[in-house]
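Revision sheet: structure tokens.
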Amino acid sequence: MRSLTRTTRRHTVIAVSAACLIVPLAACTPDDGPRPAASATSKDGAAPYAPKNDGKRDGRLDERLDRTTILELQEEMKGKRLTSKELTQAYLDRIHRLNPRLNAVVTVNPDALDLARKSDELRRTGEERGPLEGIPVLIKDNIDTADRQPTTAGSTALLHSRPAQDAFLVKKLRDAGAVILGKANMSEWANFRSPEQTAGWSATGGQTRNPYVLDRSPCGSSSGSAVAAAAALAAVTIGSETDGSIVCPASVTSTVGIKPTLGMVSRSGMIPITSRHDTAGPIARNTTDAALALWAIHGSDTADTATSDADTALPSDYREVLDPNALRGKRIGVWRKGHTGIDPDVDRTFDAAVQRLRALGATVVEGADVADSKDMMQKDMLPAVLTEFKHDLNAYLAATPGPHPKNLTELITFNKRNATVEMPKFGQELFEMADKTDGDVNAPAYRQHRSAATRQARQAIDGVLAHHRLDAIVTPTGIAAPTVEALEPTPFESSTRNSAVAGYPHITVPAGYARDTLPLGVSFLGTRYSDANLLSYAYAFEKATPVRKAPTYLPTLPGRS
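Predicted:
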């Protein structure tokens, strides 16, 4: 769940919210807890991302990684000008060089180079598996891999967790040829442990840093996935979202984030908050790479009934959505209420975006404001999510092999016993509130809360779309990133909650910068399974508005606190 700052006090942030690098993790491991994971070092005990530069080609490649697309990398590998092993090593070198400042990558896969060599051999024999053949991908640390990497959700409680199989989406990535490069840091337990949680902090990975200004928030909970994508630590990354956890960090790191329709991507093998909101999605430096990754991971999974229609929910070829003229003749509603008139940089950037939509041939419809969701959040969503969290997390923990807490009650006890490591900054109030529920998702009271929350969220979006006869809604994604520890409240209302509760898609794309330094994004929202259309609008906007620039890695914003 999203947490840009710890601004909203308990009565609101509770509802939906979300510095030990794993190599030296022993220094911050609880006395009675697990030791550093085997995946943190290679077979001979050396760091698996030890730098290696065999010649000028590697150096030139590193310089290009920030602006090179997956399609361009594939062309180079097909043309035998580049190998997956060289590409993987180049990303490992960048992680080695940049991650100490960013804490975006919590684990690197000790088998990554072996996987890359296998990909090169398959390419040599004409046995390419799919569109991501040989492409290194980082995935969020709440997504299972049945390899030598742990899946921890940022908690030392799960360092000895050993998932029996890959998450369904990881299987899809491997089937498409991807090299699983490692795990990205995240807000611990996806920002659903405490209302005072700091975005991007976990006990296993420390504080993720925004690559544009290092003392600025990376938002959460897919903090590491967004920062790693922005800093070109992988070709593309996978995050997950319950409410804003993909699009918020993408917005503040000048990346493209896709929160798909609920059920587009399987959640099997993903540490849950709630199956009624959770979804994985890609984060990339451009819409083409993000679309390619979404096509690779979407699909029906018999273990996740919500995905029954996923196989046919997107066109067969992702290139069908890459249309620079996609906005021509479309009716795009403008959502300003609660988002503009708050910050001059946001206003300036959004006004320019709306003008660009007009220039691209869209009919811009003002007044397409989506209703505020605060009442629904407190009355119905919070009780529903707390019940779902206990139910879904208990099921995941009970089914996952390895010595670790087997339910939420045991997890709460573990955190209390290891409070120095697990709770040096904030508590576990949300855990305790959830554990007091019965976790019964068949109870009439729960079902009433869930039905009311989902119905209101869907009506809020679908009502605006129908009333104005719109193809999509556009709005600022959020404000510029505040400092990591900022406590000042902001009046900017959530741009993500109704989409999250409704299970509808939401895509953010870079739109500009505050003070010429801090990224700002613009969001495209729509109804269920409008993902392909939203992607085409985001692509057309991006092509006409190429504002993204490489991170600056400033320690702080000049002249500002």
